[in-house]
Amino acid sequence: MRAKITYAVTAAVLVVYFVLVGSRGVLLIQHGTALTVTFGVAVLILPFIGVWFLWKNTQFVQRANRLAAELEAEGGLPVDELRRTPSGRIDRDSADEVFARRKAETEDAPDDWRCWFRLAVAYHDARDTPRARKAMQRAIALHAGKPVNV
């Protein structure tokens, strides 16, 4: 729940920032000189890119959460079997062991979105966020029946 609240607060702060930046871009354009209009247009592009990025990330999170809910209903969510350090961090060797099992499971069933979902969790636990995101994107695409590039 804390992650959802953090995401919502961050998204709200970003939206306020986009509005402020956008208003500055409009003011620059209204000033009317060639230089300020050029800067104003450039400044307006940034909020549009930011809104697009925020929208794509929100869609990704919603789709991943739907897969998690479906997998939980099936009883297929990965069990947290990781050892932790006294400070609560995941033990690296433990994460590597679980990752090896999840990778083998995915190699045995490469068209099963459930395996890719569990592999994404294993990547995340192993602190490999880019690969975790790619694996989750693949799970989402497989679940949706979309073609997946190898």
Strand content: under 5%
What is the count of β-strands? Answer: 0
Helix content estimate: over 70%
Mean pLDDT over the residues: 91
N-C termini distance: 34 Å
Poorly predicted residue ranges: none
- Shape assignment: elongated
Helical segment count? 5
Q: Which radius of gyration do the C-alpha atoms yield? A: 21 Å
Structural class computed from helices and strand pairing: mainly alpha
Order of helices and strands: HHHHH
Largest sheet: none
Keywords: Membrane, Transmembrane, Transmembrane helix
Transmembrane segments: 7-29, 35-55
InterPro entries: TPR-like_helical_dom_sf (IPR011990)
Protein name: Tetratricopeptide repeat protein
Brief overview:
With 150 residues, the protein is an all-alpha fold.
Features:
transmembrane; transmembrane helix; mainly alpha; membrane; single chain; 5 helices; Tetratricopeptide repeat protein; 150 residues; TPR-like_helical_dom_sf
Descriptive account of the structure:
The protein has helices at residues 2-31, 34-74, 92-108, 113-125, 129-144. The two termini are 34 Å apart. The model has no long low-confidence stretch (mean pLDDT 91). It is mainly alpha-helical and 150 residues long. It is built from 5 helices and no strands.
